[in-house]
TrEMBL record:
Gene Ontology biological process terms in this record: amino acid transport
Keyword flag Ribosomal protein: no
Transmembrane annotation, as ranges: none
UniProt-recorded name of the protein: ABC transporter permease
Residues spanning the signal sequence: 1-21
Domain Leucine-binding protein, chain residue ranges per copy: 28-367
Membership in a protein family: Belongs to the leucine-binding protein family.
Keyword tags: Amino-acid transport, Signal, Transport
Length: 403
């Protein structure tokens, strides 16, 4: 009788284990959640949806006939809207992972919601470094940039080139405050100083008063701790004020190729910026970019770093599902964290235990109009920050997952 009970327990555990390794609803649903109608629509928007679709097509069932569906929604840059969508996807619509999510406030709320759920959060565009720090979650993988990397690597590159005195134009939002804070720590720790800072609302159209303050500060570097349409407007108006022509250097902490295209190379020339991805870096990035540009609705546009991150993170997630036979976060995320190798779009890549995807970062300068030889030929490489220097050290994040 005792042996029969043991056999029944063993059989039950095997059945339970097999069930846990199955794909829910026999389909993997990935929800692209981003800003489709606002200031991030060019850097993310429907381009991110197409990038996720490309990843699903390239995965092609993973050799196991795994079905993949891509759904999408607009979070409108509102944390409550984003959370409501995520909750519906989790409770009603059987979505297995959320990818993209520009806007740190939205991303942090979703990170909390999905923690310890069955869903995976592929925070490929959420910039808050808290995702791999005090808010780290066993369900979250963070690709592309974060505020620590953006603030520190950009500040380091500029300080090393003589940019000691800074003035910040910062969006009054979690993203901007995080970037400025990280950059200021680096600047002051390396003999520089922050002369001043102006905070502006998200979606500002008139930067005149802020730029006048920055100009009158005589700071060597004016740091734009914002993104999307805010950065575009600030750069355009800085050109009208002749800020760079008068000797001050303008650096954008979070700018993408789409933004440069939108403002025009004549306006953006000489601008310094940090990127994790550039479409014209090598044969692999060019091949991806040309495919992306030919997708429905893209009309020849080159992908941003965020859109490349959607592709890379979605494909890595799907490959982990193929390896584990499960689409549940507790199975998939640990499998993703085993990866160490070369990503076609981001180069030498490691996924750490805190969920941070580590890869090189690049300081670029926007070319002069006469230096650009073909469409979207906008950047010249100034310096490369190796993967092991580009992100906050694992032990310093305060993430309980690595203790």
């Amino acid at each position: 009788m005792k042996h029969l009970k043991c056999a029944l327990v063993l059989a039950a555990s095997l059945i339970s284990g097999a069930a846990s390794a199955e794909i829910s609803d026999n389909v993997v649903r990935i929800g692209v959640l981003n800003d489709i109608s606002g200031i991030f629509q060019d850097t993310n928007g429907m381009g991110s949806v197409e990038a996720a679709r490309m990843a699903a097509e390239d995965f092609n069932g993973g050799g196991k006939n795994i079905k993949v569906e891509i759904v999408y929604a607009d979070h409108q840059n509102k944390a409550d809207v984003g959370s409501a969508i995520a909750r519906k996807w989790l409770d009603v619509e059987g979505v297995d992972a959320i990818v993209d999510v520009p806007n740190s406030a939205v991303g942090l709320s979703i990170n909390t919601l999905l923690r310890d759920s069955r869903m995976t959060f592929l925070a490929s565009s959420t910039a808050s470094s808290d995702l791999t720090g005090k808010a780290c979650s066993p369900n979250t993988i963070q690709w592309v940039n974060d505020t620590w990397a953006t603030g520190n690597t950009t500040a380091a590159a500029m300080v090393s080139r003589g940019g000691k005195d800074w003035y910040f134009l910062t969006v009054d939002f979690a993203l901007g405050k995080g970037i400025e804070s990280e950059a200021q720590k680096y600047i002051e720790a390396h003999g520089g100083k922050v002369i001043g800072s102006s905070k502006h609302p998200l979606g500002t159209s008139d930067f005149a008063s802020f730029l006048l303050q920055a100009q009158s500060s005589k700071a060597q570097v004016i740091g734009l701790a914002n993104a999307g349409g805010d950065t575009i407007n600030a750069v355009k108006q800085a050109a009208e004020f002749g800020i760079q022509q008068n000797g001050q250097r303008l650096v954008a902490f979070l700018l993408f190729i789409n933004d440069v295209h939108g403002m025009g190379i004549k306006v953006a020339q000489g601008l310094q910026l940090m990127e994790a991805f550039y479409w014209d870096m090598n044969d692999d990035t060019r091949a991806f970019a040309k495919r992306f540009a030919a997708r429905p609705g893209m009309n020849g546009k080159m992908p941003s770093g965020n859109q490349a991150g959607v592709y890379a993170s979605t494909l890595a997630y799907l490959n982990a599902i193929a390896a584990t036979g499960s689409d549940i976060a507790k199975d998939v995320v640990p499998e993703m964290k085993k990866f160490k190798g070369k990503d076609r779009l981001f180069g030498d890549t490691t996924i750490r235990q805190d969920g941070r995807v580590v890869h090189p970062m690049y300081l670029f300068e926007v070319k002069k109009p006469e230096e650009s030889k073909y469409p979207y030929d906008y950047y010249k490489l100034v310096s490369t920050i190796p993967a092991d220097q580009a992100f906050r050290p694992l032990a310093e994040g305060g993430c309980e997952l690595v203790k």
